[in-house]
Specification:
The complex is a heterodimer of chains A (about 110) and B (about 110). By secondary structure, chain A is mainly β. Chain A has strands at about 5, 10-15, 20-25, 35-40, 45-50, 55-60, 60-65, 70-75, 85-90, 105, 110-114. Chain B is built from no helices and 11 strands. The mean pLDDT of chain B is about 95. Classes of the chains: A mainly beta (about 110), B mainly beta (about 110).
Chain lengths: ~110, ~110
């Protein structure tokens, strides 16, 4: 019940295309859903996050869609660029600052080709 | 402003040895978190220190331990190393618990041979 399932494991997208990464969770107590971006040799960095009171949050080319009834959330990267090539992790927790409670997905390696 | 710094970047140990990993948080941050990122797995929470005290630990055996110093830097110690301990160990720091984002360091790649 504590798992966050992430798919796909890897994704190859043409420059300008849309990248979509999906996550599903079981624990209905989760109320904070962040996405992290990790470049090779770097630690993960918070990209965008959503609370369950909204169904969508957009920041630039990055959008989180949230479906509370299905217990699913997804990251959409519009107009994907080669610089977006990285590993993306979804996560979930109960509470924004509960870093020790974050449950991470297994990651999606995104490659964007010119 | 310097970010979270970890040392060493890479560490190679033999099975049965002990490893010590170090983390310096962002200036002003009092909370330090340790995570293990094994190949093909997401980040697994190890330990959380705040104001010098261990506040929480993840589902790892006792040979994973650590401490936080008065300057808020932290050490992660792994005793009796096993091959399965090979992973990227990430440290993160935050201002505290309530509604604050944690920032990650670049990690220490531990290889056990």
């Amino acid at each position: 019940q504590q798992q966050v399932k992430q798919s796909p494991q890897s994704l190859i997208v043409q420059k300008g295309g849309i990248s979509i990464i999906n996550c599903a969770y079981e624990n209905t107590a989760f109320d904070y859903f962040p996405w992290y971006q990790q470049f090779p040799g770097k630690g993960p960095a918070l990209l965008i996050a959503i609370r369950p009171d909204v169904s969508e949050k957009k920041e630039g080319r990055f959008t989180i869609s949230f479906n509370k009834s299905a217990k699913q959330f997804s990251l959409h990267i519009m107009d994907s660029q080669p610089g977006d090539s990285a590993t993306y992790f979804c996560a979930a927790s109960n509470g924004v600052g509960n870093t020790d409670k974050l449950i991470f997905g297994t990651g999606t390696r995104l490659q964007v080709f010119p | 402003e310097a970010g979270v710094t970890q040392s060493p970047t890479h560490l190679i140990k033999t099975r049965g040895q002990q490893a010590t990993l170090r983390c310096s948080p962002i200036s002003g941050h009092t909370s330090v978190y340790w995570y293990q990122q094994a190949l093909g797995l997401g980040l697994q929470f190890l330990l959380w220190y705040d104001e010098g005290e261990e506040r929480n630990r993840g589902n790892f055996p006792p040979r994973f331990s650590g401490r936080q110093f008065p300057n808020y830097s932290s050490e992660l110690n792994v005793n009796a190393l096993e091959l399965e301990d090979s992973a990227l160990y990430l440290c993160a720091s935050s201002l505290g618990r309530e509604n604050t984002e944690a920032f990650f360091g670049q990690g220490t790649r531990l290889t056990v041979v």
